[in-house]
Amino acid sequence: MIKKIIFLGCIFAFSLSCQAQNSKALNKNINNNIKPKLVVGIVVDQMRYDYLTRFSNKFGKGGFKRMINEGFNCKNNHFNYVPTYTGPGHASIYTGSIPRYHGVIANNWYDKDIKKMVYCASDDSVQPLGTTSKLERMSPHRMKTTTFSDENRLFTQMKGKTIGISIKDRGAILPAGHTANAAYWFRGKNEGAWVSSTYYMDDLPKWVKDFNASSKAESYFKDWNTLYDIKTYSESGADLNTFETGFKGKASATFPYKLKALKGKNENFDIIKSSPFGNSLTADFAMLAIDKEQLGQDAITDVLTVSFSSTDYIGHNFGVNSKEIEDTYIRLDKDLERFFNYLDSKVGDEEYVVFLTADHGAINVPAYLKSVKIPAGYIDNQERKKQFQTFLKETYGTAGVLEKISNNQIFLNKEKIKALGLNLGDVQEAIANEQIAYKHVSKAYTATAMTSVDFTEGIEALLQNGFNQKRSGDVIIVNDPAYISYGKTGSTHGSGLNYDTHVPLLFFGKGIKQGRTLQKTEITDIAPTISALLGISFPNGVIGQPLEFVLE
């Protein structure tokens, strides 16, 4: 009898244990199904993928390496269109689309209707906030499709907030989308203030005004020296070389840089934008926005977009192989660590999700590449223009058939061509055949080809993805690899080559697996992946696919 009682007791205890485990598992599954309270999208402007590996030994455990070790690393992530510029990059990341559809074909482009250049975020119908400068009249109205942040706002009946933050206006405005509560960017020059426009609100919030009134931005007028002993910076070239531009007022582009002394000759607060401290200032402001806007504080998902832009200014100035770039990424790693620690404490380390990528990469300074016997160089635009005008006059009796050359695209004067009794397609073809004969022109394609042929691979497919029928030109030019239209110091970007297309893609946080892949992913896959994680509609122009292997 006693044995029977003991046996029954054991079964009962076992049953209770199973129920408890099942209950625990069920609760865990329920918790896992809850959406992240906050989505943080991070774009590092001009970050090549190999910066993750080149500078890895200098990174701590809490920044880039935390994302890699705790999250998912897509090692073979690429842009799938040309041109690889900041405006199209930010638009494509958040819309999951390409310039062909979202319409942001460059940072600036020639508007064929009004016959003048326009900026991707400019909007004369709004007014600036926080500054008197009319240059800050900005909105996302030129972007034709929605972002995943727009779709989250629609899904939550506008209850989920969206805030966009960047030193650059376009880096804040385009990611935040059309329905954002706010986008803030940094006005440098003599102001040193975070600003916005009446597209979003009637007046800046008090917390933004208070931040601007503080001495935080001014506190970064300090010496920029290497964080560690410069002798240990073995992952970059010599500090003194002929491949860097540097700052006005300093004879050489070498450490240290005394920003307070140099600011007068370098547009005052703009020098902070062109130093690693611009990234630190961005992180400061983003953390304050989380606090004051109460982002991630309830069950309704919010979106914060943060673009670290100083990396781009520094890359353009000093180049891919510079000590300055190495130090900038070491310091950015520290800023990411304190940002993630803040998210842990404010939102909860199991309550948010982050992705990190870049809007484009960058070429090594062609002058440096030439010095180590790699084919590279610079385009002589004046000589090319002179040769082209001679061709136009000899062929058509006038150079008036040309309206504009912009972003390696030739825009033709349709009225002039019609008045001369010429066929537009024939003129396009003749100009493409002429351009291909020029020095360092690799390829030339007509608008007719872009709209009539379905290219599926190679540079032709990238060009087609970047071609917008209403906004792009009549003839598209592709230069030889590593040949650029730029000064002979510093780096630039814009091509469809790997140095411009291969960028990091890291995910970590709630709902993300731990792992890595060499499978090719594309920049347009990010938005549908985040949309799938949130269970919301995809942005309306998406061409990418959700990365199912990233999600739990």
Describe the structure.
It is a single chain. This protein is an alpha/beta fold and about 550 residues long. It is built from 21 helices and 22 strands. The chain has a ten-stranded mixed beta sheet, sandwiched between helices. Strands 15-16-18-17 form a four-stranded antiparallel beta sheet. A hairpin with a 4-residue loop joins strand 4 and strand 5. Helix 4 (about 85-95) runs parallel beside helix 7 and helix 11 packs parallel to helix 13 (about 325-345). The two termini are about 50 Å apart. Mean pLDDT is about 95; it is low at about 1-30.
Fill in the keyword field for this structure.
552 residues, alpha/beta, ten-stranded mixed beta sheet, four-stranded antiparallel beta sheet, 21 helices, 16% strand, disordered N terminus
List the helices and strands and how they pair.
Layout lengths: L1 H32 L4 E7 L5 H5 L9 H7 L1 E3 L2 E2 L7 H10 L3 H4 L5 E4 L4 E4 L8 E2 L18 H8 L6 E5 L2 H8 L5 E6 L5 E5 L8 H8 L9 E2 L32 E2 H4 L7 H4 L3 H16 L9 E7 L1 H9 L4 H24 L5 E6 L8 H6 L5 E2 L2 H16 L5 E5 L2 E4 L1 H6 L4 H12 L5 E6 H6 L5 H9 L8 E5 L3 E2 L13 H4 L3 E5 L5 E3 L3 E2 L3 H9 L18
Parallel strand pairs: 1-12, 1-13, 2-21, 3-22, 7-8, 7-12, 14-19
Antiparallel strand pairs: 2-20, 4-5, 6-9, 8-9, 10-11, 13-20, 15-16, 16-18, 17-18
